[in-house]
UniProtKB/TrEMBL annotation, chains A, B:
<feature type="domain" description="HTH tetR-type">
    <location>
        <begin position="31"/>
        <end position="91"/>
    </location>
</feature>
<keyword id="KW-0175">Coiled coil</keyword>
<keyword id="KW-0238">DNA-binding</keyword>
<dbReference type="InterPro" id="IPR041490">
    <property type="entry name" value="KstR2_TetR_C"/>
</dbReference>
<dbReference type="Pfam" id="PF00440">
    <property type="entry name" value="TetR_N"/>
</dbReference>
<feature type="region of interest" description="Disordered">
    <location>
        <begin position="1"/>
        <end position="34"/>
    </location>
</feature>
<dbReference type="InterPro" id="IPR001647">
    <property type="entry name" value="HTH_TetR"/>
</dbReference>
<dbReference type="InterPro" id="IPR050109">
    <property type="entry name" value="HTH-type_TetR-like_transc_reg"/>
</dbReference>
<dbReference type="InterPro" id="IPR036271">
    <property type="entry name" value="Tet_transcr_reg_TetR-rel_C_sf"/>
</dbReference>
<dbReference type="Pfam" id="PF17932">
    <property type="entry name" value="TetR_C_24"/>
</dbReference>
<feature type="compositionally biased region" description="Basic and acidic residues">
    <location>
        <begin position="23"/>
        <end position="34"/>
    </location>
</feature>
<dbReference type="InterPro" id="IPR009057">
    <property type="entry name" value="Homeodomain-like_sf"/>
</dbReference>
<feature type="compositionally biased region" description="Pro residues">
    <location>
        <begin position="1"/>
        <end position="11"/>
    </location>
</feature>
<feature type="DNA-binding region" description="H-T-H motif">
    <location>
        <begin position="54"/>
        <end position="73"/>
    </location>
</feature>
<protein>
    <submittedName>
        <fullName>TetR/AcrR family transcriptional regulator</fullName>
    </submittedName>
</protein>
DNA sequence: CCTACCGATCGGTAGG
DNA sequence: CCTACCGATCGGTAGG
């Protein structure tokens, strides 16, 4: 008994990683938890604002304990930036899909039809179900540090770049008057403001809003 | 000694007010300090947001110590409500003045001219120097409790009511198409959004913006 | 990803 | 309006 030594592990036994018990199984779990955090953060940031939302609130909403969000994000601000980046990526890819789908139907898409697709998709991104990410980006801009703003701004420029030739074409055909750059800013303003007053079930639908916007901003073709 | 009763105060001796040593002198001082707080709060709430601004920040900016704001306002939220109410009162009276001044010049003001005056004044209220109050109202709405929202909303309805007949007249003359109620919401959106991108010295002036908005939203009269 | 914890800050108050 | 203070909460971290 007394000379019974603990068994010596074979030299080639894989060393167990210490300190951070990472899963060897599918990484999906990790990604899912991060996504859960993003979704919870987006919803709470939108409802209460960034500063009024504690990382504990977010952790609880994602089914975690108070310290766990910092395993996935360096700090609270990085979580905000991630929400905005995620929002812009979704918006851009959704916008590209919408344009492609529309182009497949009618092969020759008029500038007016293009704008209709863009406006309709923008409203979907802004007001559709499960869309907290973009409103957070619109209304928590000042809570972001300068380097993070630049990162988000890059995606934002991509998103807006799609609108430029459409508005230019409308201007050339006399359907949109005035400076197209100011027109774009005012159009975005008119649409983004809907976040403040739109109520899903009530009165006007997103289709209604789309038609109203087109009717309001566009002139008859000459 | 045992029968010595505490002296009975004469019935007509003036009772000293205890607890709050209010000034007997001019009340101007009080009003000025309150205004200082409002101004400081408006600026900080706008720059950093309501939740990210401490009452200590505000006190310091107004030249007071940390506890003093609570002499003037019941709590932080009441201070926010006061900022918004002050903003709406100024906006409304400024709007009334602008309309009166315009009516004195040209005696018959066209609907288009009316809208020009309203838009120009709205931009001034929104983007002019010393105007932090209305932006705070626009972007801190969710930080307000329901009863306070109702109080602010009352003033807001008054302000917007002035626009209704003007937009209706434009619609009747064919210069504005579509539902006038949606048109009003989109117009406000287009203008309010300028808070996010307008830079005072740069490129376009408030006059430029006014003309751009009119050109964008209005059709030729039929 | 949890437990246990820290230092800092915050809104607000008593008493003068 | 100041002084001095309190209880609560918050972002974040060490160690596992």
């Amino acid at each position: 008994m007394s000379d019974a030594l603990p068994p010596i592990p074979p030299a080639d036994e894989p060393r167990r990683a210490r300190g951070r018990p990472r899963k060897t199984a599918d990484e999906r779990d990790d990604g899912n938890r991060r996504q859960d955090l993003l979704r919870a953060a987006a919803r709470l940031f939108r409802q209460q604002g960034f500063a009024a939302t504690s990382t504990r609130d977010i952790a609880t909403a994602a089914g975690m304990r108070s310290g766990s969000p910092f395993y996935h994000f360096e700090n609270k601000e990085a979580l905000l930036a991630a929400v905005m980046l995620e929002g812009m990526q979704r918006a851009s890819s959704q916008q590209a899909d919408a344009m492609q789908a529309a182009a497949r139907h009618g092969q020759a898409l008029s500038a007016r039809d293009c704008l209709r697709v863009l406006v309709r998709n923008h409203l979907e991104v802004l007001l559709g179900a499960e869309s907290d990410f973009i409103p957070v980006m619109l209304y928590e801009w000042r809570s972001l540090s300068e380097p993070q703003r630049q990162a988000v701004n890059e995606l934002r420029r991509e998103y807006e770049a799609v609108w430029v030739p459409v508005l230019q074409a409308l201007h050339d055909r006399g359907e949109l008057s005035g400076d197209t750059s100011l027109a774009r800013l005012m159009l975005f303003g008119a649409l983004n403001w809907a976040v403040q007053w739109f109520e899903p079930g009530r009165r006007s639908s997103l289709d209604d809003l789309t038609e109203a916007a087109l009717q309001l901003f566009l002139k008859e073709a000459v």
